[in-house]
Amino acid sequence: QAKRYSSGDWIHILFTWPRSTVLHRIRSPVLVTTCWTFLLALLDLWSDKVAKVRILKNFSKSPHSIVGSAMSLLLVFRTNAAYTRFWEGRCLWETLTNKARDLTRMLVAYRPVIGEKTCERMADLICTFPVALKHHLEGFMGPDQEEELARLLNPLDRPGVLQAVNRPLYIVQAMSSVITNDVPYQSDRWTSRERLAVLGMINELGKCVGGCERIVQTPIPLHYARHTGRFMGLFCLTLPLVFIGEMGLLAVPAVACVVWCLYGVQQEIGLLIENPFSRSTEVMPLLLPSSS
């Protein structure tokens, strides 16, 4: 079962905050803005003691109030866009799982016609397909991944799959070739209708490969990411000018919390979930639904 959180986990979530993946990834902007706020707060205190004038006391809040509305819209748009990609990836993986199960059920139903060895070969290819697609989408293939594929594959298909550039598509082609060439026509039980039905299921697996590749190879537009990043940086770096006048040194933790919230939602959470096929198991465990 996939891991789920309940309302009673809030204490555990708070205590594990220092080990947060998001906090670790955004530590640079949080530390920079915190140090910047601390320096400005010291400057404000120094000017108050030496010149008896607080240089940041009367800084206007209007610019940040106006820009805050646009910031909230950007946060919503960024999160929704990323989650749409995440959900589309999950739907594609669900389609892959369902079609693989349908194909397996069809092969079992026609096992006497197809033959035991051919069914076993097809079963090995079906089991290997989601693993090969997972490695293909992650863009990483090491010795452990090679060994995992070799262990799942039939000796007849092992050399071709391991040498292929696009292994999931090669497996789809191998399954189509087996059904087309290795299963003889029988007028009473295995006709063109059954053959086309099985090939149609295999074609659906091939469409899943293309859909998953589209998500991986089409990131959020670079211009949008750069503009929102610059907008966020300027907003957070000028935020201490507003906080220090009212809060003094308390502006340091306040700004740190605000930057953590903004960068966490706008930048890192969006980046993490916009690619549901990343190697991070916290995003979406790909083989959990397909392992059955």
Automatic annotation (TrEMBL):
It comes from the Eukaryota. It is a multi-pass membrane protein. InterPro entries: YneE/VCCN1/2-like (IPR044669). One of its GO terms (molecular function) is chloride channel activity. Its main location: membrane. Keywords: Cell membrane, Ion transport, Membrane, Transmembrane, Transmembrane helix, Transport. The chain crosses the membrane at residues 234-265. It is found in: Cell membrane. One of its GO terms (cellular component) is plasma membrane. This is Bestrophin homolog.
